[in-house]
Amino acid sequence: MPSRTLENKVEDLSKLAATLTEQVGNLQKEIKGSVTAQAETAKVLAAFRTDIALLGQQSAELKNLKEQLGALADLKISIALLERAVEELKRAKDNGAAGSGRWPVPLLVL
């Protein structure tokens, strides 16, 4: 096997340098793509965090509304009882209880 000349070695090194340069260029392109993807991921994550914070706020508002509706339900029951008492008083008045001088007082539990 003939020994390699200096020119052959330089040529091989030039080929290796070209290959490495190409590979470095490809790596740089991939890094730029990764940086772009990471920036997009950061934007999506920020939007996600905002959405989560909004959901937390809306959840608190719904809890407050639920508590208020519970109080409204109690008021509706009280109003229904008062309406029933008024109706009983009207019936008693129409039935002539007023003529006896006594008004029946319905039992009202709140």
Describe this structure in words.
By secondary structure, the chain is mainly alpha-helical. It is 81% helix and 0% strand. The protein has 1 helix and no strands. It starts with 5 loop residues before the first helix and ends in a 16-residue tail after the last helix.
DSSP strand count: 0
Q: Segments where pLDDT lies below 50 for 5+ residues? A: none
Helix content: over 70%
Mean pLDDT: 87
Report the span from N to C terminus. Answer: 112 Å
Work out the helix count: 1
What is the rounded Rg?
A: 44 Å
Strand content: under 5%
Shape: rod-shaped
Largest beta-sheet details: none
Order of helices and strands: H
Structural class by secondary-structure content: mainly alpha
